[in-house]
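Internal ticket #5521
Category: modeling
Description: The requester needs a full-assembly model to guide mutagenesis choices. All entity lines are attached below as received. Residue total reported by intake: 60.
Assigned to: D.W.
Attached entities:
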Amino acid sequence: MTLVTAFYSVNEALKPAQNRVHHNNDACPPGRDIPSWERKPGTGGYRLCEDCQRMTREGR
Ligand SMILES: [Zn+2]
């Protein structure tokens, strides 16, 4: 696993507020699904995605 600079999708803004997340692990499947042109750097003020948390905890 590689921790990367936090990023989020421009489409997070379309989701209900409680579902909005940012990513910081390049092995995260939902994060990988975000094409580069939809990525914004930073957290957007959103919480860290649960897949990223789990993968980082498991060392992936
Ligand atoms: Zn993630």
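Resolution: model delivered.
Comment from assignee: The chain has a mean pLDDT of 95.
Ticket closed.
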